[in-house]
Amino acid sequence: MLPYSLIVGQEELRTALEIAYVSPGVGGVLATGQRGTAKTTTVRAFTTMAVSEFPVTLPIGATDDRVLGGWEIPELMHGKSTRAEGLLERAARSASRMLYVDEINLLDDYLVNIILDVASTGVLPLERDHHSEDLRNVEFTLVGTMNPDEGGLRPQLLDRFGLVATVESEATDEQRQRIVETVLRFEAEREAPASEFIAEALRRDGERKATLDTARERVATVRYDTDVVARCARLAQDFALAGHRGELVLMRAARALAAIEGAERVSRDHVRRVAKPALVHRRGRGDTGTFAAWTDQDDERVRAVLDDRTD
């Protein structure tokens, strides 16, 4: 697997994944972009760096029983009712505590809604054969990817994701060349017993993991001023967000970013830098059936609210 530190670009997705790792309460990450933009590669590289394994992955076409759990068929054939663990429970028990859903926009809305409910509440309600039970502490971070060319998610489902990262192909010849050279060199040296190139990448991965683990331990101690909370609330009002999930995600994400950078307090700049992934999907829908693109005008609105000195 390509080491995390060798991923070229993808800053928005990488930052979103790191924030969600440090502060799971942010509410998961949705990566949206066209095919071939290394969304899955980045997610797998991140979890390999963080916990040395791939995330639990929900395949396209998964059935209810595969997701929620069902019955052990061999046991049923012998007259015994033994429940089989579903992917949601596996994700909660995994080292990464992450469920990865590729092409989540192609999944049935019913299943998406259940997955988002469990991810936000940590409770998996089950009802079968006239028997009801609630499995508790089923807690995991949901990471989904989607190609907007293949359809979107309903607004109610989009809003349930904490952060949305827009993933695009690298625009410059230099970056594209760097991607090709990095991948080809990794493929050529990954079987070499003493590759300095890969050893250095793994060393940087270890350093990044240590930084994120430290941030995860101290994020609750990072302080914030009333002024910063007020700015988050004003941003939510300025962007006409429905409900209050948007400003809560803003604060949690800004706090996690501050912890990652070793800051003692959340600043307006931390809020500014997480505004796009926290707000982009909570506004009006665009012509593509997903959500309106974030523009320079949106950046200016964020700066105007955060830099306002009238109060």
Automatic annotation (TrEMBL):
Stored Pfam families: AAA_5, AAA_lid_2
Residue ranges annotated for the ChlI/MoxR AAA lid domain, each copy included: 232-284
Record-linked SUPFAM superfamilies: P-loop containing nucleoside triphosphate hydrolases
Signal peptide: none
Domain ATPase dynein-related AAA: 29-161
Domain of life according to the entry: Bacteria
Protein known as: Magnesium chelatase
Organism of this sequence: Streptomyces dengpaensis
